[in-house]
Design brief:
Elements lengths: L4 E7 L3 E8 L4 E8 L6 H21 L4 E8 L3 E2 L4 E3 L8 E4 H9 L3 E5 H12 L8 E4 L7 E5 L2 E3 L20 E2 L2 E2 L2 H5 L1 H11 L11 H9 L3 H25 L3 E4 L1 H5 L2 H14 L2 H6 L1 E4 L8
């Protein structure tokens, strides 16, 4: 059987990547741009399409002909229809028929998938989830979403909303994420941790006065306030993981970018919470792993 090639888009709140890849998970060509989601859907869609077109054309020049187009993007969304319903990291993307627009633009059959589901599938096929039957994947980047592989099948839920774990409230109050104060995303996503610093120490870090890398550098250098921010975030991360461990009893939980970049700053407190709170038999059976695919994931 001849190798098939896929034109792919990974649309995130911060950056968007366009790739040409094959069904063995090899990325052959790649181009990345800032998403600039605050520019509104129409302008952002034009830039994303132009980036995908540049990869599409370069691939054709090398004799690589895409058979289909696949998109990883944040939810909520209707997967079959490819309609995007106001993701928190893509303001203005309200009832957007993304699948139809891309099919009209490229003339290829298009599949739109929730980025949590896409990440779960990628890690299950090619990364840290290989060989397991029950896998939870957490995007853990700019936002916080999830994907579930249960009994070796992707679980999307009744209305394609399974895995929207960032919306779960883990505290009565706290920084806002996913439209809710005290949400798991508000405490543990990249954007949430920065807001958490402002919420805990407003005099030192007013809104938008520090970035996550700057905060992490302070923590690594022993700054007490910065360490307290990551302690609070890691504790809430752990409490959310406990719910997943106790309810789903997974073999492995694979976590995205922040678990790699921040490491023990948040994973240490999270593991302590798991040891303290989770059912011991379920916790012992569950491994915590960072993504193996890194920037290739989406």
């Amino acid at each position: 059987m001849a190798r098939q090639y896929i034109l792919g888009l990974d649309i995130g709140g911060t950056k968007t990547a366009a790739i040409m890849g094959d069904t063995d998970g090899n990325v052959l060509l790649r181009n990345e741009i800032p998403t600039e989601a605050d520019q509104g859907f129409a302008r952002t869609f034009d830039r994303i399409s132009a980036t995908a077109a540049s990869v599409f054309t370069a691939a054709q020049e090398q004799g690589l002909m895409a058979a289909r187009l696949s998109v990883s993007v944040g939810g909520p969304l209707d997967i079959e229809q490819g309609i995007i319903y106001s993701p928190p990291n893509l303001p203005g993307w309200d009832n957007v028929p993304l699948k139809r627009g891309l099919e009209e633009r490229f003339g290829l059959p298009c599949h739109v998938e929730h980025d949590g589901n896409a990440g779960a599938l990628a890690e299950w096929y090619f990364g840290a989830g290989r060989g397991y039957r029950n896998v939870v994947f957490l995007t853990l980047g700019t936002g916080l979403g999830g994907g579930l592989i249960l009994n070796s099948r992707l679980y999307r839920g009744t209305t394609d909303m399974a895995g929207e774990v960032g919306h779960v409230r883990v505290a009565e109050d706290g920084p806002e994420g996913y439209g809710k104060r005290g949400s798991w995303e508000g405490y543990c996503a990249g954007s949430g941790i920065v807001r958490l610093a402002t919420w805990l120490y407003p005099a030192r870090w007013p809104e938008r006065s520090i970035t996550l890398p700057e905060l992490a550098d302070l923590a690594h250098n022993g700054d007490a306030d910065a360490l307290a921010v990551f302690q609070a975030s890691g504790e809430r991360l752990g409490r959310g993981l406990v719910m997943l461990i106790d309810i789903l009893n997974p073999e492995v939980i694979v976590m995205g970018a922040l678990s790699i970049r921040l490491g023990e700053l948040i994973l240490g407190p999270a593991r302590n919470a798991i040891r303290r709170e989770a059912l011991s038999k379920s916790a012992e059976a569950c491994k915590l792993k960072p993504s193996e695919l890194g920037d290739r994931l989406g």
